[in-house]
Design brief:
homodimer, alpha+beta, D-amino Acid Aminotransferase, Chain A, domain 1, D-amino Acid Aminotransferase, Chain A, domain 2, 9-stranded mixed beta sheet, 5-stranded antiparallel beta sheet, 9 helices
Chain lengths: ~280, ~280
């Protein structure tokens, strides 16, 4: 059965989005997706900090953490709080309503949406032996003014995701216009070369996710040297070990990209363990 | 007084947009803006053709022309039809609602929005002597998969438009990553060099508007040779005459970009006249 998501718009169960909302008209806003456990958001300070920072890049004043926490309390009910079951919360902040035209109104009231949905049912083998990636034909465009932020202009991800229907493929690797590996459609990527952990630098394109940030911080625990730098597809395919990450599944090992395969290794599992707080 | 726009969502005055709509979540859709005169859309066949083509690029089946015409008849009332007064119609087509995730649902019902707003009150001097442009610092990203189409991922236009507050500036010139002139935030651009009319080619970025298309067709009437090619900012500034165009104002002469000025000339006025059917 399809889980029916429920949502709050500006803290209200009965509101929807106006067609005049700039989020709908122009993708003028940002979003975040996070795990809810025991009715509370996991890694909330990092998520909120990133939400505020992303809003700031495009000149939106992010609603307060208190307002959003109030939304979580309304939307995630007692049974969520009582259980250890996980759910997913998605926060969307748009610039709010405005008249036609790209110029934002002098004063705007951001629109705040929190959507509840079911935790994805990841296959057991993803945890045990890893996932397959596909190299997307769609290349990420270079835009320094918007790189790294998780904004609502996600048509590139949509057209990239439409490229494959093979259900054995977990995610699609996205390259930039120069052929450097950047990220996957819904994940960041790390490549281990001996004791160096590399991840693509995201100054031109890509989304700098908070799990990426946490893995960069945790690498020292494993005596790994961190390197954030451009990485060609060819270089990435030579990695001793590849992992992808996001806020929902934590980290998965990549065991196959096209004809390239990697045997089972421990890094993804180790990071999953380190990423888990409890 | 601010004009209050009114709108129809899927032909219904009482509907709004679900936060689960992919137009809101990802900017997963396209739009058009057109003049309504006597209650009917000007250049409708070209607009509808472009809407269908843009939808097709991202795999959306565009609602029928009959459905949209029905919306116009509902939204633009008898007084609009009886008067010669102009208004603006904006059509937004999104992929429709979907579960969380970039992958579009196997079957989607596109969301169809028609918004009515007032015709902009363009200053008389824009028609008489032309407009000033500003060269935006924001550069357009190169994305062959989406270039030319008027999709809902318009954050670049928004951040570019936020660069200036000087009300004497009518529009902002957008360059690509290589420094070629592409378009303005809400207009296409043409440069006349002697008897050649040049306009930037839009295979990497930009929106190929229908007024641009009409001007390309009309150029022969004026014995102008048309050239669609990359054009550096330096080359553009050497033009004998510059004009910008869109569906609402038709064509305006550019009389100033930074320190570069152009004296009053006839091309924009001539095209405005040729663009007008009645």
């Amino acid at each position: 059965m399809q889980h029916t998501p429920t949502y709050l718009v500006n803290g209200d169960f009965n509101l929807e989005i106006s067609p005049l909302d700039r989020g709908f008209a122009y993708g003028d806003g940002v979003f975040r997706t996070m795990v809810m456990q025991g009715g509370l958001p996991v890694d909330w300070p990092l998520h909120y900090q990133k939400l505020v920072a992303d809003c700031a890049v495009i000149g939106i004043v992010c609603p307060s953490a208190e307002l959003l926490m109030g939304d979580f309390l309304q939307l995630f009910s007692i049974e969520d709080i009582d259980s250890t079951k996980q759910a997913v919360a998605k926060i969307i902040i748009s610039r709010g309503e405005g008249a036609r035209g790209y110029k934002p109104p002098a004063v705007t009231t951001p629109t705040r949406v929190v959507i509840k949905s079911a935790m994805p049912d990841y296959a057991k083998e993803y945890y045990a032996t890893g996932v397959h990636l596909y190299v997307c034909d769609t290349r990420l465009a270079s835009q320094t003014k918007l790189a790294g932020i998780k904004h609502l202009n996600r048509l590139e991800n949509v057209v990239a995701r439409m490229e494959w229907r093979d259900e054995s493929i977990f995610d699609g690797l996205l390259l930039d216009q120069q052929g450097n590996a950047i990220e996957c459609t819904m994940s960041n990527i790390f490549a281990r070369f001996d004791t160096t952990l590399m991840t693509p630098e995201l100054s031109q394109c890509g989304v700098a996710g908070i799990t990426r940030q946490r893995i960069l911080s945790l690498a020292a625990v494993l005596n790994l040297t961190v390197e954030v730098a451009p990485m060609s597809l060819g270089r990435l395919l030579q990695a001793d070990e590849l992992i992808i990450c996001n806020s929902l599944y934590g980290a998965f090992q990549v065991n196959k990209i096209g004809n390239n395969t990697w045997s089972q290794q421990a890094l993804a599992k180790t990071f999953r363990s380190l990423l888990t707080h409890d």
